[in-house]
Amino acid sequence: MTVIARFAPSPTGKLHVGNIRAALFSWLYAKKAGGKYLLRLDDTDTERSTEEFAKGIETDLEWLGLKHDIFARQSDRIAEYESAAAALKEAGRLYPCYETGAELERKRKLQLSQKKPPVYDRAALKLTDDEKRALEAEGRRPHWRFKLDSEKTGFDDLVQGHVAVDAASLSDPVLVREDGSFLYTLPSVVDDIEFRVTHVVRGADHITNTGVQIQIARALGAEQPVYAHFSLLQGPEGRPLSKREDAAFSIEALREAGYEPMAINSLLARLGTSDAHEALLSLDELAAGFDISHLGRADIRFEPAELDRMNASILHLTPYEAARARLADAGCDLGPAFWDAVKPNLARFADVAEWARVVRGPITPVIEDADFAAEAAAELPAEPWDIATWGLWTEAVKGKTGRKGKALFMPLRLALTGLDHGPELKNLLPLIGRERAEARLRGVSH
RNA sequence: GUCCCCAUCGUCUAGUGGCCCAGGACGUCGCCCUCUCACGGCGAAAACAGGGGUUCGACUCCCCUUGGGGAUACCA
Question: What is the pLDDT of residue A402?
């Protein structure tokens, strides 16, 4: 059996660190099992779905490297849902209801005030054909509810263990709106069946839906997929991600802030497990070490600082070849020696520009002792320079001036880079070159 | 209101009655490396939410409290 996992976002908003986990986990699960990954746009809510959000989702997924093998969108598949709905009506599981939203709201309020669960009372089930005709004559159009079996629907969840959803405490879900359009519930089931989805990996907020959807799948005569409901990601304060945080931690915002996609993937793939939070350079490596059963049931916290550290780790591991194109784009491709020298000092990729400027100039040298700097300049050996040059030169300067340690090196760093911190100078010096080095030691911006 | 789930170092967690005066990872702190920052290496500090049971013995089982989260839509 080929594993097919799916990610089914609705294009009604942006992807963020919370909801992207469904995509990541689904992808990792499918790939580790040698299976396929389906991206399905659940765009049945035409009020809220937009093409812009759909595009954004695809852009984000592509940027993260979560390529799909199969693509579908529900708005293309209405006919399939119509026939499934017809089959359910045929089976007597889908029944027409005529209450307006306001009427339903009133019923709910009443139930609540009587301290009763706000469950739909199935009044519509008792309507006679004459009554239905009368309501339609009034101009009412029906919406359609799925008649739930009032039993506990159990399933074995890869994360939650055995779960039982008690349908008795649930309202019969509306599957078809008054205007004939579908809510997500039925299309989701129909598509999971038709695309032979074997594993549904989604947030724990869907557990109740799963109970309902299993009943629908059964009513349609289909097997249910395996479910994995992971616990929800909370914000840094240990509270649900706020609207504000959703925006700040959207994939788009993180991309624009200069985070590495693999930093996001690496962190999110291991957060919530006891597996080491290590920076991995490829999704395949991440998939190899991914075990969905390592996820716990408790909610987990997203700490932005962890992403920063992960991002730095990714950069520290990135080989020149992998960085080359981006270095060129940034106008900072000064070769492998440069990249290897400066990458341990990077927190974000864009920081590389600062070090490129230190190498190529212009920088303003900081000279505290002009005589010393001039003496040092005089000792600069002839080119070609390599990694040994720094040692040779500073040895010579030390002999000449009698300085050593910090008193020797810091003034050189300040003069050569204009900064009191940075990558090792033995690596930087050959890149700076004799001409610039000499000018800087003489206090000339270069 | 009702139902469901959760509760171990700062964070993510291991732990399924004795192996735990609680293990790992990240962070923190210290030391080493070192001209600096960073990287890297080594080491240390750091937790069982509270209260009752059950038991010879509870982080582990039960109950309550407290605190969190989710669901309860003609959203997904």
Answer: 86
CA of A232 vs C1' of B62, distance in Å?
28
| Residue A308 in this model has a pLDDT that exceeds 90 | yes
Which nucleotide's C1' is closest to A166 (Cα)?
B3
pLDDT in tens, A15-28: 999 999 999 999 99
CA of A171 to C1' of B32 (A): 66
For the CA atoms of A327, A332, A334, A335, what is the dihedral angle to 10 degrees?
Answer: 0
Strand B bases contacted by the protein (CB, 7 Å): 1-8, 11-14, 23-27, 35-40, 68-76
Are A327 and A339 contacting, i.e. CB atoms less than 8 angstroms apart?
yes
**Over the stretch A313-341, which tens digit does the pLDDT of each residue have?**
999 999 999 999 999 999 999 999 999 99
What radius of gyration do chain A's Cα atoms show?
31
B23 C1' – A174 CA distance, angstroms? 49
Q: Which nucleotide is nearest to A142 (CA to C1')?
A: B74
Q: Kindly report, residue by residue over A282-303, the tens digit of the pLDDT.
A: 999 999 999 999 999 999 999 9
Nucleotide nearest to A100 (CA to C1'): B74
Provide the percentage of residues in chain A whose pLDDT is more than 90: 86
Pick from A219, A216, A203, A305: nearest CA to A263: A305
pLDDT at A426: 93
ipTM score here? Answer: 0.93
Angstrom distance, A163 CA to B20 C1': 31
CA A59 to chain centre: 12
Closest protein residue to B13 (Cα–C1') = A274
| Nucleotide with C1' nearest the A426 CA | B35
End-to-end Cα, chain A, rounded Å: 65
DSSP β-ladder status, A226-230 and A233-234 = unpaired
Contact A20, A251 (CB under 8 A): yes
pLDDT higher than 90, residue A150? no
- pLDDT tens digit string along A76-114? 999 999 999 999 999 999 999 999 999 999 999 888 888
